[in-house]
Amino acid sequence: MTSTEHAQQPDECEIRRAAELLRAGELVGMPTETVYGLAADALNVDAVARIFSAKGRPADHPLIVHLPDAAHLVRWARAIPKEAIALANAFWPGPMTLILKREEGVPDAVTGGQDTVGLRVPDHPVALALLRAFDSGIAAPSANRFGRISPTTAAHVREELGDKVALVLDGGPCQVGIESTILDLSRGTPVILRPGAISADDIARVIGRRPATRTAHAEEGAAAAEPDQPRVSGSLAAHYAPRTPLQLIPVSRLIEEAATLAGEGSRVAVLARTCPDPRDARLTWRNAPAEPAGFAHDLYANLRELDACGADFIVVEALPETPDWQAIADRLGRAAVGSGDGEAVLDLHDET
Ligand code: TXA
Ligand code: MG
Fold first, then answer.
1. Homologous superfamily of 12-213 in CATH?
2. 137: pLDDT confidence band, cut at 50, 70 and 90?
3. Is 157 in the pocket of ligand 1 (CB under 6 A)?
4. Where is the YrdC-like domain (predicted)?
5. CATH for 246-338 (3.40.50.11030, 3.30.470.30, 1.10.3210.10, 3.30.420.40)
């Protein structure tokens, strides 16, 4: 995190005001290290209902409850396994959500009526200050409209949901840039429901066994066979999506395919990683950082800009198929499926 990213942190007075707004049942835009959240008092069912209507999100999709620290866990979860404590100690505050059996009193509105609850302590000074001032759980999904690109700056939140929130706390651009890893510890075998910056290997190092991963494909099968599977909107095949059709193309064909589309009269925006800019005036070219942390940091801002530049297609350089790119490949794959009219070609499995 650079110092300029957090040049204008909200002061104590603004944090106090945000906490009061939450107590009054209002919605607040809250920065976290992953993406901005649309925050509400997790125990106020009317406030939680406003999150769903603001986002246009189906009411049975559960929300993550953000806590000031791990000591608050026992108020929200029961039958907490030792592995959860070890992971909380290792990774909180940080980009990891634990799915645990919910404690009595956690509203159905938050859990989507399931017997589990998603919990995390975010690693952002503004979120932590707000959580301490509020001193209870804050429900916060990403502050975007359902299915759309998650916001990583306060300006993104204002653009998308400005009319729905009482206040947006500006904590600068999010350091991580993609949503937290979601680990289900409520069913015996730990399962990663959504990959994120904390990897299966990171988790295995702490708990001494490797979590299973629920792929989109396995999930479809599992959902059909097991109707009680948790609902994870971030695991829908089409999610995190720009309005412009988006395709992933191997670097070896990137320039050629972009030029072909442009030659057919399409306006083409390119998100490249290693491919040098050919300086073709017909292409809106953007180079993203070549390593995963930097690429993730800029990903959603890049997609938003390319989506807004008036192009007919967004072409993205396909990613390496290595574990350190997995969470980003997951988001871009879903962005491709959900983009445009949803018919865009998904080309994740070409070698690069
Ligand atoms: O990084 C993040 O996790 C961000 C920041 C704001 O904390 N939040 C976020 O929230 O991504 P949201 O609502 O956009 O995604 C949360 C995901 C959803 O896909 C939801 O279905 C899943 O977490 N989830 C929440 N509670 C769950 C539960 N009890 N069981 C299974 N999945 C759950
Ligand atoms: Mg989301």
1. DHBP synthase (3.90.870.10)
2. very high
3. no
4. 12-198
5. 3.40.50.11030
Q: Is pTM, for the whole model, over 0.70?
A: yes
> Which atom of ligand 1 has the smallest separation from the CA of 102?
29
pLDDT digits (tens, 9 = 90+) for 261-294: 999 999 999 999 999 999 999 999 999 999 999 9
Dist. CA 283–CA 193, nearest whole Å: 37
Query: Do residues 171 and 126 touch, judged by C-beta distance below 8 A?
Result: yes
Quote the radius of gyration of the chain (alpha carbons, Å). Answer: 20
Please report the pLDDT score of residue 234 as a whole number. Answer: 66
Q: Residue 68 in contact with residue 79, Cβ under 8 Å?
A: no
Distance, CA 247 to ligand 1 centroid (Å)? 26
For residues 76 and 136, give the distance between their C-alpha atoms in angstroms, rounded to a whole number.
10
CA 64–ligand 1 middle distance (angstroms):
5
Q: From CA 2, how far away is CA 17, in angstroms rounded?
A: 27
Residue 195 Cβ inside 6 Å of ligand 1? The answer reads no
Closest ligand, as measured to the CA of 118: 1
Is 347 a residue whose pLDDT tops 50? Answer: no
Residues with Cβ < 8 Å from 174, sequence gap 6 or more?
31, 32, 33, 34, 35, 36, 124, 152, 153, 297
Domain ranges of the chain: 12-213, 246-338
Burial class (CB in 10 A: 0-12, 13-18, 19+), 229: middle
